[in-house]
């Protein structure tokens, strides 16, 4: 008998290419191999807290799991919210990049001094991470960080024309412009921020227990997909996941996936490391997202038992 899990991935904009491993697992038949079927669903609107986006569906029992930021779980813990656990790593580094209208092979963070950066996406975690990075390198008052206008195409065009120096956004958003030659990838924030659990699979503790066999199967399938990712090219990966990104240009898909593979953004396995979790918690505390008065313990928010049980 085939087991079933329902995964709510947020609104349709949340289906970004850095979440492609779950679609790869489906395309390769890895869920089916483990006796599992995953029903992918969406939410009507997005959000960055447990009150918005995909998390309410998990809390209400309408979905068994979701994919999202451990930062939300940390904040939820500090606010005494519903008990939720991260159980498998998905994205293990910052997936945001800087892009410019002209190529720059000699970029360093000091290159940002005196420059204008449009924060096109205005996404909380990314903005917090970038401003902390500027502060760490004594650049906080040396860079003009401009909030995105809400019109992505207009912001990207402004950078392409040189009216601003850099665009800050995920490679998912930047890749179509890069593939068309309108922008150039300048730097990945992944190596600059270090290994951090940007996104993970999340479920209620009681649902993890009640559907344990299904979650074991899911984690094993994701592990196999993540291993496959490390061994194949962006072109091979794009061929498998393209149906899930039907409205996304093929050239952009290959460009974006290659950038993410090179930056080692995809988790290499479902196992989330405590050092990475703690590093992320410090980043979010320093950035003001988390309260320094309430520690966010790894053991209370992450269940590593499923990931630790799967074969390498």
Automatic annotation (TrEMBL):
Cellular localization per UniProt: Periplasm
Cleavable signal peptide: none
Lineage of the organism: Bacteria, Pseudomonadati, Pseudomonadota, Gammaproteobacteria, Enterobacterales
Domain SsuA/THI5-like: 21-236
Species the sequence originates in: Erwinia billingiae (strain Eb661)
Keyword Signal found: yes
CC annotations in GO: periplasmic space
Keywords, sorted A to Z: Signal
Primary residence: periplasm
Official protein name in the record: Putative nitrate/sulfonate/taurine/bicarbonate ABC transporter (Substrate binding protein)
């Amino acid at each position: 008998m085939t087991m079933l899990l329902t995964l709510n991935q947020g609104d349709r904009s949340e289906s970004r290419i850095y979440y492609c491993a779950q679609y790869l697992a489906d395309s390769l038949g890895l869920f089916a191999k483990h006796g599992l079927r995953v029903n992918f669903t969406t939410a009507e609107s997005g959000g960055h807290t447990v009150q918005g986006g995909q998390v309410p569906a998990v809390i209400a029992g309408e979905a068994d799991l979701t994919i999202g930021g451990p930062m939300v779980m940390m904040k939820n813990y500090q606010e005494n919210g519903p008990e939720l656990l991260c159980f498998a790593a998905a994205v293990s580094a910052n997936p945001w990049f800087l892009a410019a209208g002209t190529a720059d092979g000699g970029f360093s963070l000091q290159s940002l001094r005196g420059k204008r950066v449009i924060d096109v996406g205005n996404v909380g975690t990314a903005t917090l991470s970038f401003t902390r990075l500027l502060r760490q390198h004594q650049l906080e008052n040396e860079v003009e960080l401009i909030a995105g206008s809400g019109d992505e195409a207009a912001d990207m065009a402004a950078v392409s024309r040189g009216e601003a120096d850099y665009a800050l956004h995920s490679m998912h958003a930047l890749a179509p412009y890069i593939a068309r030659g309108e922008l150039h990838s300048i730097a990945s924030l992944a190596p600059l921020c270090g290994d951090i659990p940007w996104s993970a699979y999340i479920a209620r503790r009681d649902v993890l227990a009640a559907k344990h066999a299904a979650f074991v199967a899911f984690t094993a399938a994701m592990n196999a997909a993540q291993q496959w990712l490390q061994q194949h090219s962006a072109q091979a990966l794009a061929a498998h996941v393209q149906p899930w990104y039907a409205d996304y240009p093929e050239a952009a898909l290959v460009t974006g996936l290659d950038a993410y593979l090179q930056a080692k953004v995809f988790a290499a396995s479902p196992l989330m490391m405590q050092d990475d979790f703690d590093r992320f918690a410090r980043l979010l505390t320093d950035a003001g997202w988390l309260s320094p008065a309430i520690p966010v313990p790894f053991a209370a928010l992450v269940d590593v038992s499923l990931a630790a049980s799967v074969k390498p």
